[in-house]
Predict the 3D structure of the following.
Amino acid sequence: MLRGGSPTAAAGPGFAWRAGPIDAYTDDDGTLLRLMPDGGALAVRGGRLQRAGGYAETARADRQFLARVGAIIRLRARGRFHVHAAGVADPRGRGWLLAGENGAGKSTLAYALTRAGWMLLGDDGVIIERTDHGIVAHAWREPLAVSRALSSEFPELAGREAPPGFADARDRIPMRAAIAQRAPVAALVFLRRGERDAITPISPAEALAQLVRQSSWVLMPDGHAEAHLAALRDLAERTPRFLLTHTSRQLHEIASTLTGALA
Amino acid sequence: MRYRAAPDALAATLSDGAVLLNLRTKRYFSLNETGTRIWQLLLEGRTEEEIVHALTAEYDVPDTVARDEMRTVIASLRDCALIEHDPS
């Protein structure tokens, strides 16, 4: 059973594991997460998140991080899996996942698409689910963070300040966008900044390797890693996949670039 | 010598390759089509000689090429702790 102390010290038929700054202990009752070295703890038990020792005294940003990981674990147990990608739905209701390393332009191009009338599924992550009709992406609610340095391209950013409590090392500010609750995934697009614009198909194996590299939560040994990997495999195998090398032109042309790729 | 998948290894096979993970070491490894075939033959409990024989037959490559490819893949899989020696 779960205990409120150090996850690694708990006795019983469970097992300890670590994911980044989190020590975790999983057994039949659920998973206990503790932010190291001195952070609070959060339990995922019976499909619910429960505060554990030290949680109330933990800094707000750390609590949010714990809650994010807890939610990812809770959803994994229900067959829904986090993917590190921005998600958008086009005017026809088709979902698009924009994946890439930090700084590749996920949030920026997602925002550019929302300005063109597309809806947002997630800024830095979406939840995917395998269904009889293919992979469905569910919204993962986080602020859409856009760099203020883009105010010359997006005039509405000029003069805006980040609200209190929204700290971002890349000087991004949260922007509003219309939210889509879910959308069937129509395409997977890996982003890379470059000196010319090009969109090219890539292979399923290459797509899966990139998804795994960018979705570290698949490696959590909580008993659902195999199902998580299978969902990513289906996403990579069944969905059209592209590599988009992009310049600043795409800030205004991304919608036609993407829809043209599927035409 | 025979090998088996390591206890912490997970694999996802696709039409053009595979991605393997080790949940303990947090390392992952991707395989091309030939590498994926070698992985499958390893899981079937084939010996190294049997794997070379299968590759030369299936891919129409010389024995030396098949052997080099197999050794490279096995060494990489062992380095990533994705396979282990099967003493049985």
